[in-house]
Amino acid sequence: MKEILETMPRIELALIIIGVFALMLGIIFVYAMIHEYRMYLEEHRKARITFRDFFKQEQFYIFLFLASIFIMLLNLLYFLESISAISRQILITNIKLNYEKNYQSIQ
Q: Is the overall model pTM greater than 0.85, yes or no?
């Protein structure tokens, strides 16, 4: 497992970690929504089971899940931006070093 993680590029590893975390978060929220909706149905025996009613009762969990996904995507964007800045800086350093080598060999 350690060898697999070491050979993966950082971007793919970040995507896998965020994907697994989002999947786990989704499973937890779906379980909580279903559990709370069952409790609601036990208290209100005359209520009919409909998707509209389910989404109306559980809109707080849906909002939390969407907000969590939004925050994770913002973090991923920040991570990708920092990686691109670091790689840009490495590229500029390599270009300067190659230029200095070529300039010294010409003289």
A: no
